[in-house]
Write a structure and sequence with these properties.
The chain is of the alpha+beta class. Helices cover 25% and strands 28% of the residues. It has 3 helices and 11 strands; from the N terminus they run H-H-E-E-E-E-E-E-E-E-E-H-E-E. The strands form 3 sheets. Strands 2-3-4-9-7 form a 5-stranded antiparallel beta sheet. A 4-stranded mixed beta sheet has the order 1-11-10-6. Strands 5-8 form a two-stranded antiparallel ribbon. The protein is globular, with a radius of gyration of 34 Å. The N terminus is likely disordered.
Length: 260
Amino acid sequence: MKKKIKSAVISIFVIAVLLLSILIGVKNGTLDKLTKEMPTLATSQEETEKTTVNVKNDSTESKPYEGIEIAGYGEEFDVKLHILTSGKYDENDRSTYNIFHVRVNDCKVSRQCDFDINRIDYGLENKKASMDSNNNFISDYYYAAVELEITKDVDDNETSGVYDNIFQTVWYIESLKDDGTHPPIKNAGTVGSDAEANQMGKTYFSFEKGETKKLILYCIFTDEEVENDTIALSFHDRTSPYIGPLAIIHEPGGKHEKIN
């Protein structure tokens, strides 16, 4: 019986001490301060968790166009041509390829056909409804005249192959997307050039070592592409393991935009 009374007294004493602590806390404002800080602590923890997630996402997201060089408007870039007689293309073996230094000098976008229409090899037959009698586009499409400045590297390999001294102008036109993809533009295409006619045909340009020439590529774009797409020439020769650069030729509203 005495043990039960003693236990009860101890319990009452503990409860009294707790109540006294609470009263002192209320009087000093400590409890109120702690209560007010609790949401802040919870918010800080939530923000910390969000930050952790963001850091994780940033570290795992692939960068746009990873592994592919992007040349801005007017920037010089290199195009490597595999020497067919040298065996397998090897990025680390200079004897397996020659180099062309290229720059996009200009890109004029216009509905007007202010060039020799015979420079257009193909791509107009299904667009006649959008053209007037002078081959100007009335709607739907634009011409693009892309001027390239090309120099064959002075230290290129001496070869007997005709193809080793030419710059091929049959390239692909692609759209640079924000998600890092660069799909080909189906309605666009390089449709001709002002390359000199020679034994290889007018889609090729022959060079001596160290020689510089200018070449105009003619393309056709839809209204939607001109208004919305960042357009680039792809210098990836599909017959070679070499992955060439993407050279920007048009950006909507860009400082280089020239539309008539």
